[in-house]
Structure prediction request, 136 residues.
Amino acid sequence: MTKCMVCGDEFDPYYKAQRLCQSCLDKFTKRYWDWNEYRKQGHTRRPTCIVCDKPLTRGFSVCPDCRDTWKKIYYQIMRPKTIIQARNRMKRMRDKAIETAVENRLRTGLDEDIAAARKAGLSYGAYMVRKKGLVR
Prediction:
């Protein structure tokens, strides 16, 4: 059992670094995405602190007293998105590595002759005989 850093309730964490209970996480996630939509509409200042709802005098979204707390909350909010991005990045890197390994393998003269024979619709032996000029 771990205590929530915001409300103080005890909860069972899903992972080791979890510091917020699910209700607080949902509350701050909603606040964050609502502010994000508000910001995209052209507003540059948030009127109150995201964490404590105190009025803000500067152009930040968090008051100086809540900044350290907000860093931990923001990590909790963005964790699922970060995990998905990491999985997708690893998948792209794996796919790219497989493609480059296939493309970059050494092509010998034999490989080129086999490919040319297939392109001509002949067996390798018949292609080589024609290539050497033994049969027309």
User: Anything to note?
Assistant: Residues 108-136 form one domain. The first strand starts at residue 2 and ends at 3. The two ends are 84 Å apart (CA to CA). The chain has a mean pLDDT of 87.
